Amino acid sequence: MSQSAKAILHQALELPSNDRAALVEGLIASLDQPNPALDTMWLKEAEDRLAAYHRGELEAIDAARVFADLGKKV
Fold first, then answer.
1. Alpha-carbon distance 34 to 21, whole Å?
2. Do 40 and 69 sit in the same domain of this protein?
3. What is the pLDDT of residue 71?
């Protein structure tokens, strides 16, 4: 973290809790910006995968198996 960010954090920690909460919400909202190019790439990927599934080139995995496998890795 840069020195200026550390200074801002120190100042923010001195704010009342409701102001800190509003500040956090504003910062998080600033990070959550839509990216149309990325959305377009994900849509194409999803459509390509679905088409591959319909052509028999990609098999589906049962959700219960996926979650069971995830549980084993955690």
1. 23
2. yes
3. 87
Residue 28 shares a structural domain with residue 42: no
1, 9 in Cβ contact below 8 A? yes
Dist CA 70 CA 42 (whole Å): 23
Q: What tens digit of pLDDT does each residue of 14-71 get?
A: 999 999 999 999 999 999 888 999 999 999 999 999 999 999 999 999 999 999 999 8
**Which range marks the domain in which residue 40 is found?**
36-73
For residues 15 and 23, is the Cβ–Cβ distance under 8 A? yes
If asked whether residues 23 and 50 sit together in one domain, one would say no
Tokens of 5: 């960010």
